[in-house]
Amino acid sequence: MTVTAAKEIVQTFEKVFEPIDRERLHALSEKGRADPSVVKTVRARTVAEGRRFRHLNYIRNLDAHIVDEPPALLGDDTAPNPTEALLAALGTCVAVGLQANAIACGWTVKGIEVESEGDINITSVWGTGDLSEKPVGLTTVRLKVHLDIEGASPAELDELVAHAGQWSPVLNTVKNPVSVTLARA
């Protein structure tokens, strides 16, 4: 993609940024306050496509979300790898929280961007490589938020970022221990 094409996409995005509806957000918030004990089970089904490490992930009734590996990790490079997909989910969850809370404050959201990066030692190669003692998985994640929000002071934007981080389900799942079971069906 050329720089000109990329700039055109950004300009188009800036013109059509459509924030969520504040009244519908308020109604959803009130529903949560009315019964704070509600727990929803979310599901995904992952199916190995049979093309190296390419996998199809099915969520609700949506088209398959593809996850693959890059060539250096023996994949076909057709989609993000699992760690990149996790970073994308993390950035998206934080961005959703930023937008919801900015709208709740009555601010005008013109743009939100979350840069996500993380460090991972891949030498164990899924348990087939170097199995010496080391952390498995991401050891450090860095998020950088770019906000184009009118009506908020820099201090309010800093508070917004901290608040969104405090209440982001994906960020807190990554940050805090969570019970996970893995068993053969």
From TrEMBL:
It comes from the Bacteria. PANTHER family: HYDROPEROXIDE REDUCTASE. This is OsmC family protein.
